[in-house]
From TrEMBL, chain A:
Protein's UniProt keywords contain Oxidoreductase: no
UniProt name for this protein: Siroheme decarboxylase NirG subunit
Family: Belongs to the Ahb/Nir family.
Membrane-crossing residue ranges in chain numbering: none
Known partners and oligomeric status: Probably forms a complex composed of NirD, NirL, NirG and NirH. All proteins are required for the total conversion of siroheme to didecarboxysiroheme.
Native source organism of the sequence: Pseudomonas brenneri
Pathway(s) the chain acts in: Porphyrin-containing compound metabolism
Catalytic activity: siroheme + 2 H(+) = 12,18-didecarboxysiroheme + 2 CO2
GO molecular function: DNA binding; lyase activity
Keyword ATP-binding in annotation: no
Siroheme decarboxylase AsnC-like ligand binding domain boundaries: 67-139
From TrEMBL, chain B:
Keyword flag DNA-binding: yes
Protein name in UniProt: siroheme decarboxylase
Organism: Pseudomonas brenneri
Catalytic activity field: siroheme + 2 H(+) = 12,18-didecarboxysiroheme + 2 CO2
Pfam families xrefs: AsnC_trans_reg2, NirdL-like_HTH
InterPro entries: AsnC_trans_reg2, HTH-Siroheme_Decarb, NirdL-like_HTH
Pathway field: Porphyrin-containing compound metabolism
Amino acid sequence: MDELDRQLINRLQRGLPLVRHPWQAVAGELHSTPDELLDRLHLLLEDGVLTRFGPMFDIERLGGAFTLAALAVPESRFEQVAAQLNDLPQVAHNYRREHHWNMWFVLACATGEDLDQTLSHIHTITGLEVLNLPKEQTYHVGLYFPA
Amino acid sequence: MSVCTSRLDETLAQRLIHLTEAGLPLVEDPWTWLAEQLGISVESTLDLLKRLQGEGAIRRIAAVPNHYRLGYRHNGMTVWDVCDEQMPRLGELIGAQPFVSHCYRRPRRGDWPYNLFAMVHGRSREEIDSYREHLRFLLGDASRADEMLVSSRILKKTGLRLAPPRSCRSWLASEDR
């Protein structure tokens, strides 16, 4: 990664401008050309430094039901419960965190009813209490990682 | 769907999600590609994108880095028991810190006293510890207790993806979501 890669990563995290010729606009800012930027973007995606380039939808505004939930899983059963959860398509991500509540996951469902069913399904298959913490207010969402 | 998005925009937005599931094509004129796919003019396509972005249905058309590859290997979910009356002001304040990627109010539960969540990311443990200290300073006496839950392993991370239509859909918001 050289300086132009870093500048491109930082610029594109902030969003492509919604103008008629967006790549020319970005190329102008970075003193490059659309061809060069697109080539570099392609390589950064292929290499895995970037995981995606495209519209970031606020899926929650387009329907669906979401929550953050946690389980306190006994160490002896941790791998087994992780596998049970990861098999569910509703589990969008799942992290181990160092705490009594040691498994934290996000559920993404089509409806509130699906979400309730998924929560009780998880309780049933694991036998564990589910800590369900749906968001009540969003103060900020904005991942930005300067390269 | 948000109240201000029209029925037509809603349909077009759903098609946009499918069309760009794997991302926007890396071509010099992506709007023409999208317009052809949607069967509308380039101008209408750009207007649609502007409307959806203005309403917040699209946050932005952007690159999502693998933050581990950029060196951000440490993340902490800081959780705070914040006095309810001061929450609106303090939630905004905490969310506005540049090192906070996500900030939400969530419910307290029986054995879970924390109602404010702020996610911090850094390139070292010391870095995220210092962020937590800074948030503690900002919250002062309004926070009765706090913890930082450090992530030690990713068990599952699904990219932006629409699951089979019948069942639930799962997405990566961000974030991070």
